[in-house]
Amino acid sequence: MKTARLFTLLLLLSAILYHGCNSEKENNREPVDYVNPYIGNISHLLVPTYPTVHLPNSMLRVYPERADYTTLKLRGLPLVVTSHRGRSAFNLSPFQGEAGNLAPVISYTYDHEKISPYSYSVVLDEQNIGVRMGVSRQSALYEFTFPDDGKKNIILNSGYGEMKWDGKAVSGYQNLNERTKVFIYLEPDVRPSAAGVLKDGRMDESLSEASGRNAAVVLSFPGSTPALKLRYGISFIDADQAKRNLEREIRDFDLGKIQSEGRRIWNEALGKIRVRGGSEDDRTVFYTSVYRIYERPVNITEDGRYFSAFDGKVHDCEGVPFYTDDWIWDTYRAAHPLRVLTEPELETNIIRSFLRMTEQMENPWMPTFPGITGDSRSMNSNHGVASVIDAYRKGLQDFDLEQAYEACRRAIMEKTLAPWSGKPAGRLDDFYKEHGYIPALAENEKETIPEVHPFEKRQAVAVTLGTAYDQWCLAQIAKELGKTDDYRYFLECSYNYRKLFNAETDFFHPKDSRGNFIMPFDYKFSGGMGARDYYDENNAYTYRWDVQHNIADLIKLMGGREKFVKRLDETFNEPLGRSKYAFYAQLPDQTGNVGQFSMANEPSLHIPYLYNYAGQPWRTQKLIRTLLFEWFRNDLMGVPGDEDGGGTSAFVVFSQLGFYPVTPGSPTYNIGSPVFTESVMDLGNGREFKIVALNCSEENKYIQSARLNGREWNKPWFSHDDIKDGATLELVMGPSPERKWGSDADSAPPSAERME
User: Fold this and answer.
1) Who's near 81: CB < 8 A, 6+ residues apart?
2) Rg (CA), the chain
3) Which positions ≥6 away from 427 have C-beta within 8 Å?
4) Which residues pair with 183 in a beta bridge?
């Protein structure tokens, strides 16, 4: 009783002191003010983040188009980006000067660029043209100011498509692939004095329509025009719908109003998680990471209809918005689980969109990389099944679980497991079903399986491990549906990772078709480019831990908790084994290295939390803080590798809050080390999950004791049921490890059920 009173007193004192020192400073800034879209724009090796202007999950996204984010030139001005990290469809180029210098896209040096989630501004150096922009969900508005009285020209270009001027507006389309187009409708606020088609570097006023490659229309305005505004809408249906989208969202040319509404919408979205404490940089990294998660997937519903590239048709949405552009291999791990907590309706509609895609495709298989132009079937495995069961077990059940099960089952059992392929199952898959693993080829052995991609290879270990996890997820859905035989079958399959475990080395080691380990073998470098013959983008040190669903069994395979911890330590301490340029020449995706651990690649994200399973959660607490501090910073190189539309950013959000979903599909969360003194997550319907970290600081990163909903808590994890109705997790932090907290064997986070 005395302990409880003392804890409460400390909590109150901490809150008083915190508010006294920090509230005034923090209250002057709203969540959107902490977003820095430039974080990570320069990557160590991989494709960086882009400073994207958009509203949450909106169809219209733009970012300045340049070769990379150190370059000094812009390639025109963007109108819409149709896929994550893709190029702009259409370009807009303002121009003052000799008519003979016109071009489909004009390159500019630039200055004074400012980007927020909802706005863009820049000065185009050569002609001192000022640019300001604001966005809505399917439309946007540009404002230009000109320095002198020379004639003003606006060039609107389609990379490959059609553009035309009808006397009031420019409309047209750009082809994205053989059956997908994006349409535009654009109006100026001032009537042009002349208009025509760009032909051979000049404006031909006798023409009003252009088609083909770099189809461009030119609008010319009098020299007396000091400023010019352009509003436009986009559509994936047709130009008329683009016009309707524009007129519905932007009814005049008031840029301030558009930006103000964008700011309000972003604050509402970002404000679903409120944090206190930490540094200014901590809050900047946090809210920028939340912003990144809202970039994808995008809602492409337009007035109750949507175009689907999965069958090339326009559909009635029937009251449910349609979302696409989601790289599930990256996002299932943390981005989807975060939306389950903060955006449950959105996450439900995303899953329902996946199911619609399966209905529209030739083969009703759960998508893997659904985009505006269809499913690319990129990467390996079929992890959409994880998002389905994770959402369902956490209470999001407003979708057809039976339909989802069939789509996932058929994707795993009827589609080939060969990476980057949408072909039906073949000989490789027959072998897996019979023997429980993907057979590997020896070095220089010729490939004979037609489904195997010539560059991506078999990825034999990665596919075996990933499929074992997918089949565990299938087993859990089958259990929910009462399909007992299927449950038992897929549960047994979920242990297939054992088939490749080498007990002499404690690595998952590729086997040939005869059941022999491939030898000789180098766990760092065997497997060619990206280790793709056997793993994928990362080497064996990463895939040593790729058994998300059954860490308890992995501990057993490695000989117990002490040995398991030793192997974990090796991962973070083993040197590269080659010079950096030689290592990354073969493994360019495995950046952000701490030893052999790669902070930059999604299969690594759960690894720092695995000490929780072996009775040493203090090591997880220390490591999480170290990794966040080293690799996620408020600067241009503040992301260690690819940021795949929320894939890595969700790790940052969860980890800064102090917990993480190691096993999507299991309604549980591992506890780490929070960065903030207090965080509050809005769960909807008046429910909140609050994390209070007493004495939390850069030095005080270790949990000394904990209480969950007022009860003493001695486990380094909690369940979704513990927080779903609202909860408070109270942590007392200190500078030294409390090694007993959460260390008991029966306190470890849950793993897969044992086979009967």
Assistant:
1) 52, 61, 62, 63, 87, 88, 89
2) 27
3) 449
4) 173, 235
d(CA 449, CA 427): 7
- The angle formed by the CA atoms of residues 726, 730 and 735, to the nearest 5 degrees, is 150
* Cβ(264)–Cβ(277) below 8 Å: no
Beta strands in 442-563 (DSSP E): 501-502, 507-508
With CA atoms as reference, report the closest residue to 321 among 353, 361, 363, 347: 353
The distance in angstroms from the start CA to the end CA of the chain is 44
How far from 449 is each of 397, 416, 458, CA to CA, in Å?
A: 40, 11, 9
Taking the model in full, what pTM does it have?
Answer: 0.95
- DSSP character for 517? B
Query: Which amino acid is located at 345 in the chain?
Result: E
Strand partners for 107: 75
- Give me the half-sphere count of Cα atoms (radius 13 Å) on the Cβ side of residue 744: 6
Domains and CATH numbers, the chain: 61-265 (2.70.98.10), 279-297+321-747 (3.30.2080.10)
User: Which two structure tokens, joined as six digits, stand for 227?
Assistant: 């400023």
The series of mean pLDDT values per 10 residues for the chain, 756 residues long, is 42 42 59 97 88 98 88 95 89 87 94 98 94 98 92 95 97 96 98 95 94 97 93 98 98 98 98 98 98 97 98 97 97 98 98 98 96 95 98 98 98 98 97 98 96 98 98 98 98 98 98 98 98 98 98 98 98 98 97 97 97 98 98 96 90 98 98 98 97 98 98 98 98 98 97 87
80-90 in b/e form (b: 16+ CB < 10 A) is bbbbbbbebbb
The two three-digit tokens of residue 191, written as one number: 């009537």
